[in-house]
Amino acid sequence: MNIYPEFEVVRNDSRCIRCRVCERQCANEVHWYDEDGKVMLSDESKCVNCQRCVTLCPTRALKIVKSDCRLRENANYSDQTIKEIYRQAETGGVLLSSMGNPNPLPVYWDRILINASQVTNPPIDPLREPMETKVFLGKKPGTVTRRPDGSLDTALPPQLTLSMPVMFSAMSYGSISYNAHASLARAATELGICYNTGEGGLHEDFYKYGPNTIVQVASGRFGVHKDYLEAGAAIEIKMGQGAKPGIGGHLPGTKAVGDVSKTRMIPEGSDAISPAPHHDIYSIEDLRQLVYSLKEATQYRLPVIVKVAAVHNIAAIASGIARSGADIIAIDGFRGGTGAAPTRIRDNVGIPIELALAAVDRRLRDEGIRNNVSIVCGGSIRSASDVVKAIALGADACYIATAACLAMGCHLCRSCHTGKCNWGIATQRPDLVKRLNPDIGSQRLINLMNAWRHEIKELMGGMGINSIEALRGNRLMLRGVGLTEKELEILGISHAGE
Amino acid sequence: MSPKQMQSPPLEGQVRIPSGCAVSAMISRDGRRMNGERIIESMVPMHDRSNGLGGGFAAYGIYPEYRDFYALHIFFNDRRCQEECMTLLRENFEIVQDEHIKVRKMPQITDEPIIRRVFVSPMQSVLRHLQIDEKELVVRTVNRINAQLEGSYVFSCGKNMGAFKAVGFPEDVGRYYRLEEYDAYCWTAHGRYPTNTPGWWGGAHPFCMLDYSIVHNGEISSYDANRRFIEMYGYKCTLQTDTEVITYIADYLLRRQGLTLEETASVIAAPFWSTIESKPEEERRKYTYLRTVFPSLLVTGPFSIILGFEGGLMALNDRLKLRSMVVGEQDDMVYIASEEAAIRTMAPDIKTIWSPAGGEPVIVKVKEGAF
Hints:
The complex is a heterodimer. By secondary structure, chain A is α/β, with parallel strands linked by helices. Chain A folds into two domains: 7-93, Alpha-Beta Plaits; 135-495, Aldolase class I (TIM Barrel, Alpha-Beta Barrel), CATH 3.20.20. Chain A is built from 15 helices and 21 strands. Chain A has helices at 21-25, 52-56, 79-91, 178-191, 226-231, 259-264, 284-297, 314-322, 343-348, 353-366, 384-393, 402-408, 430-433, 438-462, 485-491; strands spanning 7-11, 31-34, 39-42, 62-66, 96-97, 112-114, 135-137, 160-162, 166-168, 195-196, 213-217, 234-238, 249-251, 272-274, 304-309, 328-332, 341-342, 374-378, 397-400, 478-480, 494-495. In chain A, the strands form seven sheets. Chain A has an eight-stranded parallel sheet with strand order 9-19-18-16-15-12-11-10. Chain A has a three-stranded mixed sheet with strand order 6-20-21. Chain B is of the alpha+beta class. Chain B has a domain at 13-49 and 211-371: 4-Layer Sandwich (Glutamine Phosphoribosylpyrophosphate, subunit 1, domain 1), CATH 3.60.20.10. In chain B, 30% of the residues lie in helices and 28% in strands. Chain B has twelve helices and 18 strands. In chain B, β11 (207-209) and β12 form a beta hairpin. In chain B, α7 (223-230) packs across α8. Chain B is globular and about 60 Å long. The interface between A and B is large, with 39 and 46 residues.
C-alpha cells in the first residue's frame, strides 16, 4: 500500500543554485538533478528529516516540513498507529525504531523545581568562590581502620574519579562510528570524565584513552578479552538498557564490517546478536559470580558497574545488586536512547528514570547499604538542570548519550537503525563516517560539558552549596509542581509552596 | 495531621526550621570551675542576634558528686508523660536520683514544662542482653524517648555535664535556670533567631548527645544530604534542625568511627580539593580518604559551631567562613563567640583575639586529670 510520505521537501527554486550539495549529502537519496529540466527534484518518501540538506544548503533554499496530508482524524487510531498497521500488514515484521521514546509521557524533570538561598543563608558566587564538582564512584568502607601507629589506613576500594558528575553512556563501536568513538574518547580524556565502549569491544587505536574509558561486558561478550578488561578505568556489566528492557541487541551484518568485526571478534558481515539474558546469569547469585570473576581477572583494581534498565521492581533489584559485590549501579530509564530497538518495547516497557532513581536511593538508604554502591542514572538527562535534579534525588553521577550525540551533530531523526546516518555518527559507511571530524566532534563535546559544568555551579551556588557531595540526595532542594501525592511520595519531595 | 494540629502553627520537627543565632563559650584549660555569671553576661551585647525564641547553655563539670552517672535533663508536658517516660527508663536503668531542676520564676519565661533531672546508671543485664555498650544504650533510649514518647523530651544526657535551655532570650534563660549556682570548667551558650517556629523548649540549643553538646549559628545548605546519610545509622532527626544533625554527625564520627577531632573537622568542613592538592603526600592521602569515605557528611552553607565534650571543646567555621566567629585567649582561659563584644564582656582586658580561618578547627583541651 502506498503511504503518503511523512515529510515534504520544500525547495525555493528562486534560491536554488543547482550546486547539488543536497544530492551529494543525502545518503537516503532523496534529491537528484534533472538534466533535462535543469531542476532539482526529490523523492520525499525516502526523507527521514535529518536536516543534513537543510543545514548545508548554501542559499537556504530548502526546508523539510511535516506533511499535512493526513488520514481522517481519529483520537483513538492516530495517523501513526494506522500507518504502522499498514506496514506490518505488508511485511509481517517487528517495527524498529531508534533513539529514545518520543511519546508524550510524563517528564518528571520538568515537574521538579530547584531551590535558591534568600536572606537566611547566602548564595555563593561561583566566579568568586571555589565550587567543587569532583566525584568518586565506588564502594565506601563502612568503618575507618587505623594502622598500628594510629594513623588512618587510607586504602580504599577502587574508585572512579570524575571531574564532574557526568559521563558519556555506552554506545558501541558498530552502532556508532570510529570517528564518533574517537570524539567521545578524546573529549572524556580532556574533561577528566569517562566514556563507555558499549558492547562492541574497544578499537585498538583507543586503548590509549583507557584511564577515561569504561569497558562494557554485555550478554554477547563481543570483543571481551583480558587486555580489553584491563584497558579501562572501570568495567560495566550490561544487564539491560532503558530503551529495550528485557531484550538483547542486534547489530546487522551490514555494520559488522572491517574493524568493527575485528574489534567485536566476529566474522565480517555476520549479524551480532546479543541474547536477552547473560546465559551465565539467570539469578542474582550468578551476577555475583560474574562480578567477582571480572574483579579476579583485573586483580581487584577496577570498580565494577552493573547497568540495569529501570523496570517495575527496580528498588529490590538494585538492593540485590548492591549486595552482589558491584561497586556502582547504573540505572537506565525508559527514555534512554538506542541505535535500534523494537518500537513496541521502546515505547511501552520500563519506567521513568526519575521515579526509579528516587525509589532506589531510598531503598538502599532504608537498608543501610547506600554506601555499598554509587548510583549512576541515565535515560534522557538533557541538561545541566536535569543533572542537578538527579543528583539531588540521590544519584552520584549521570550518564548522557543522546545529548552527546546531539553535540556531535545528531539531529534526532531517529533513523539510526538504517545505518545511513548523514551526520557520520550511527553509520559504518566510510563516506559518511568521515563527515564527523573528531577534532570538531570532541571539541563540541568538551564545550557542552564545560557549559553544563558552569550551569551546575551556578545552580549549586544559588542553593548555597559549594560542593557536589552536599547536593547528593539533598531532596529538600527540590519541589514538585503539578504532581500527585503519590508521585511526590515516590520522589521523596514536597510540593512547591510546602 | 489532626484538625487540631492544622489550626496551630507547626511545632519543631514538623517543619524544617532555619535559624540565625549567637554563640559564646568559655573554657579553663586548668580545669578551674567558674559559675555561670560571665557566660550569661556575654550574651547581653549580642541580644539582637536572638529573637527571644530560644536560648540555652551547656556546662561541663557541674555534677562532680554524680560524675559516674548519666545526667538526664528532661522536659515533660505533664505528669502522665513523666510516668510513661520514667517507666521506660526504669526498664533499662537504675534511677540514682530524680529531682526538679531549680528555676527562678520570671515574667520573661512562660509556658514552662515540667523540668526534671534524673541521674541514671545502665543496667548490666540490659547491656548484656542487647550486646551493646552503655553509651549506645543511652543513645538508643534517648532517641526512642524523643522520637516515640509524645510529651517527653530528653535534652541532655551526658556525664558530669548538662544543658539548660528554654524559649526566651539567652540572658533571661540563664537567670531562669540560676546558672550562677553551677560551677563548670567549660560553658557554652546560644541565642536563637529561628525564622519559622512558634518556639518550643526542646528546639532551643544546645543540642546534646551523651557528653557532646553543639551550639551553632548558621543555616546549612547540605541539611538533607547530611540527614539522609546519618539516618542510615540509627539516628532519627526529629527536630529537623541543623544543630541536631551536626550533633549526630559528631557522635557518629567521633564515637562510632573513632575519628580524632581534627579528622572530624576535615570531614565536616573538608579542605577544598585545590588545597588538598597542595599538601604533602601523606596529608593529601588522608584528606582525600576522608572526603571519599564521608562525602555526605560535608556540611556546606554558613555555620559556626562550638562542640563541647568532656574535657574540652572544638570551634569550627564553614570552609568559606560565611559566619563570624572570634577566639580570645588569656592565661588559662579561651573564649569563643560570634562577636568580639561578647569576649570583651567576659574578659575586658584581653589582648589576644583572632578570627580563625574557615574550616580551621580551634581545639581546646583541659589539662589531663583537671576535670
